[in-house]
Amino acid sequence: MDPSSTSPCELDREFAPQIAQLLAAPPLQSAQEYYDRLIQSGKHDGIRVNFSSKHGKGVCANKEFAEGDLILKDRILVGAQHSLNKIDCTVCSYCFRFVGSIEFQIGRRLYWQSIGSNSDCTNRRHYHGSDAGSSASSSGATKENSNTLPEEALRSLINGNLSLPFTDHFGLPRVVACRGCEEERYCSQSCADSDWETYHSLLCTGSKTDPSRRSAIHKFVEHANGTNDIFLVAAKAITLTVLRYNKLKRQPQKNTDESNFSLLMEAWKPLSMGFKKRWWDSVALPDDVDFCDEDSFRQQIRDLAYTSLQLLKDAIFESECAPLFSLEVYGHIIGMFELNNLGLVVASPVEDYFIHIDDLPDDEKEEAEKVTRPFLDALGEDYAVPCEGMCSFFLSSCPPH
Ligand SMILES: [Zn+2]
Ligand SMILES: [Zn+2]
Prior knowledge:
This is MYND-type domain-containing protein. It comes from Zizania palustris. InterPro entries: ATXR2-like (IPR044237), Znf_MYND (IPR002893). By secondary structure, the protein is mainly α. 48% of the residues lie in helices and 8% in strands. It is built from 16 helices and 7 strands. The protein has helices at 10-14, 16-23, 28-41, 85-88, 102-118, 151-159, 189-198, 211-227, 230-250, 252-257, 260-272, 279-282, 294-316, 327-340, 349-358, 362-379; strands at 47-52, 56-61, 76-81, 176-177, 185-186, 342-346, 387-393. Strand 4 and strand 5 form a beta hairpin. Bound molecules: zinc ion (2 copies).
């Protein structure tokens, strides 16, 4: 984009020097120390990040991540399930494991599917500026399906009054609710607590949250769901940093010795390691946009990000972390997710379940299918939709080479 076009964001000007420091590539030595500490503290056997100023950063792993691999939660820095995928798969908001039971997964999805088919589904096209953030790629729930089951049966599946055969072979962790809202679910109390401390306490829309803040969070989330859910994962990167900042600030020795900005730099460190560019400068020009309209296309994307940022600021702005809420930093965080473009995919146990039924000896299969067949038919060809989302990793957010 034309660099002379001035930013609409006041904070970009007010905090220009701090923003430059936040966005500067970390010195090689500090990055190496950070990764060495991270690898020592975690379970990253066999992975070492090597640095050289010539080749930049690269993860040397014994094995490459294959598409569809379940990535361990301790490697995820920030991740989020795609908004539309939440209809198809109910997973832990922190570690992305499927939760509840096979019956709960099937019942909940068919329930949402039946609601979806009764309402207008045409408004599901998502902003085309970014493949990384587009949630339009997921969801079998958007398809027409004539095999609707009685709502009563679906409710029984969800609340555990109706069991399907052989699901005891596919036990899933019990659903643990968020202490505040009903939107987030977890596989364990420890995931619920970790999510709360790491990201969610600032974004929870539960009854304990101040009503004006709650409605501001809702507006931000609605805008993201209606345009591009990459904003949701960017917001988590910001809450991660603000919460780390607050934690550092509570340590008495830190509070006296260090300036607020150096604490913010420290809090930002995990994100400082990711390769970043402004989102509106890094998205590929879509085929249907004429080359001569490129400037206005990129300006539109910047404006979209700015609208999202203002809604986010209405909800969670913290003046001591003000540089984080600049359009320049927000744009770079979104650009980081766009560029690294790491898809989060967790295979569905519902798929394994129906494969198990299909592999049963003929007589058992026939018996089981009397119960399971209507549900499989209702789910349709997309019965095996995996959990899909986007994320950034501690160890692999490297510049493309
Ligand atoms: Zn979990
Ligand atoms: Zn919550």
